[in-house]
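Budget justification note: compute hours in this period were largely spent on complex prediction jobs such as the one shown. Inputs:
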Amino acid sequence: MVDADASDADVAADAKPEGRMPGPRPAAKGSLTPRGEDFPRWYQEVVARAEMADNGPVRGTMVIRPWGYEIWERLQAAIDERIKAAGAHNAYFPLFIPESFMRLEAEHVEGFNPELWVVTQGGGRQLDEPVVVRPTSETVINHFFAKWVQSHRDLPLLVNQWCNVVRWELRPRLFLRTTEFLWQEGHTAHADEKEARAYALRILTDVYKDAMEEVAAIPVLVGHKTARERFAGAVRTWTCEAMMGDAKALQMGTSHELGQNFAKVFGIQYSDSTGALRYVWQTSWGASTRLIGALIMAHGDDFGLRLPPALAPLEVVVLCVREDDAVRRAAGALADELRRAGRRVHLDDRTDSGFGRRTVDWELKGVPVRVEVGPRELAEGKVTVVTRHLRAKEPVPLAAVSDAVDRVCRRAARDLRDEARAFREARTTAASSFEEVLDAGSAGFARVPWQVVGEEGELRLAAEGLTVRCLQREDGSLAAHGEADDGLVAVVGRAY
RNA sequence: CGGGCUGUGGCGCAGUUUGGUUAGCGCGCUGCGUUCGGGACGCAGAGGUCCCCGGUUCAAAUCCGGGCAGCCCGACCA
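Corresponding output:
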């Protein structure tokens, strides 16, 4: 849906990087990926910061600067659109949850207890009952679901909420695991198990996989989690897993089948058409600001971010190379023309700041196309169009700029996705023994029959820092019909 | 909670082993000028309780004792 037309895949094919194009200076201390030594260190300067406690913000909390936030807004819009297409509606529930709610579902309690932030005072007084700041909203939402669901006619109940959640983290990591993060969490109730499962899968593929691959241009593997990796309180967790630029795995989004676990403790019952009282079957699913981190780590290169145009706050920057009346006029006219064509455009005419400084900065931010307007070329009626993701420059006649920009924007997401997929494939190895898994899983993904690993094998892998990212069928499809895990393939990797 | 390491202008660091004038360097910042088709340069300038407390000494960023804070690796996790 982002780019379908393959006919102009060759636009910049023969435009090659020219001359020396030095990159940005190495960044200050602090890295998005402290463990990935090869990974560029300075994205946080552009996109965000996880401020650590220095008598300021709480350790591990996150500040997203405007550029990063606008990327998030675009991701948000893409996901929201798909959620609505799946029939769910947005709603909002309280930030504070009575502590007693969190104690109801046994596994849920166990899973989240260590991560809770608990408020014991309010209005200058000790509270009668402490409240927790939501780490996820299953409990409050189900409290209300119990009131809202009476009849089979009330089902399915499909609700989504965009909000922030808070979890105590032993080791915060910028974007990937911060104390507070923004996300979307969907919660649904269905009349039967089959429908609930189908909905969980619909969200997994039609919302998450589609948005990640088509919009964020990050290819994902889909499958379900092992019992060990499953969400606390779920009977089955479905997941989208991607490989980052350093060959490590990142969980991009999850969709859980909750069975009747929560329905039973919160008393969510309905009368079916025969009048019999039944518990609902539920799902919950979420994706977070972690996706910004994924975008950075999957597509970033040594010169900064590379953004798919659909997510880029600006698609085009028209740059005045130097102060000159004709340049200024031509650049202004080009910017207007591109805006009229519907592009998000910025005119950079700050010629008091050096050309190099400005280009490096736009490159760092990942703006997909730069149009450089300088006096020499302009005299010949030309400008330079630079394709960020390829770092390719080509001279283009003024009249053809809009077309050139279109071509770059059309191919950028596809190129990024193809590149990421090729990278993942090149680092995925079929393994048939446990020893092979150790090697292959460290270098990337190992695909191995689940029987070869098993639950004890999973423990041994954990000791080596490896985890089973997901289980899927041999051909990569979902084991969606409740088949036994035995016949499945495990994807093993090193995770963030 | 285990195992490493570090606290020095806004940021990154040197100096500490072997105490000694006025505590340096890079980046950033301010001003002026020259530049500016890929992070330029010159000159001038602002900016420091050397983490804290105590001790030794003629003299402590440096040595001694005691605190505190932060980072990295592991265990928890979207």
